[in-house]
Amino acid sequence: MNGLQNDLLLKALSGSPVPRPPVWMMRQAGRFLPDYIKLRDKYSFFERCQTPELATEITVMPVDQVGVDAAIIFSDILVVPQAMGMEVQLVEKLGPLLPQPIKSAADLNRIHIPDVKDSLHYVMDALRLTKQTLAGRVPLIGFAGAPWTLLCYMVQGKGSKTFDEAKAFCYTQPEVAHELLDRITETTIAYLKAQVEAGADVVQIFDSWGGLLSPDDFENFSLRYIRRIVAALQGVAPVIVFAKGAWFALEEMAATGAQGLGLDWCIKPGLARQFAGPDVTLQGNFDPAQLMKPIPEIQKSVKAMIDAFGPQRYIANLGHGILPNIPVDHAKAFIEAVKNYA
């Protein structure tokens, strides 16, 4: 027994029959919720991440306020580069800034594989407190960034639409790039295992920039490292891999042994199932901008989406993170439409 009152997410990931698909939303902890905005105006980003009581409050908000079937811990993928020794600033409305990016082999001397239970103890403390606060109502999801996506920020030093400097780094200094990816991978394995130990029921790997790579480069600089992480988590916890834009590798991602694959809105459900095969759970893929539609239209679109995926081996979600300007009642309508699916 998993001791959960609502275990739809775990059942869907294991392939067990469910009365309806489970539903949650990426970036549901924060952004669009007025109560989160009050905390954002009062505390800096890292204060929110590093104070377990605040992280717990933010994590549980969408469970209480919009009725999702799972909580995802409030944190950020860039806590890993920070734990590895890099300075990371998160500037509201501007995004991440890493003032001393990695440009050469010499720069690798500045980073290390940390003891994650020490350097990221605040994430584990938040997971433990959240688990206690949820009291078995819904599963708790932990997460980390994929090594390629973290390399993008660590080399580029800031957000980018193309991450051309990160790609150039991989092409001109492949040995250094693979050494960096290797260290990120080792750190991420330890970090996700520690999250499960602290209470995460499921973990998700976010490869936000996987779709910037060609299929061969995706295999070389991203998937080979994701494969290692998924293998290390086998028997520890179910893993969902979300590589935005990398639909071309769904077959290879399914072969990693991950229990779930996240999808963005740029692939048809039937095609995704054809590529991924029958033995993995698909998650997605509602365009977050569609939550601006009138509520009756949201309800219709959600029904069409579930009809296309089928209610089994499926988790209803967005194709990327919820946008900050989405009205709460529209987010709630999305959740309710899944819950009312027949």
TrEMBL record:
SUPFAM superfamilies tied to this protein: UROD/MetE-like (SSF51726)
Domain Uroporphyrinogen decarboxylase (URO-D): 22-31
Catalytic activity: uroporphyrinogen III + 4 H(+) = coproporphyrinogen III + 4 CO2
Superkingdom of origin organism: Bacteria
Keyword Lyase applies: yes
A Pfam family it matches: URO-D
Complexes and interactors: Homodimer.
Family of this protein: Belongs to the uroporphyrinogen decarboxylase family.
Name recorded for this polypeptide: Uroporphyrinogen decarboxylase
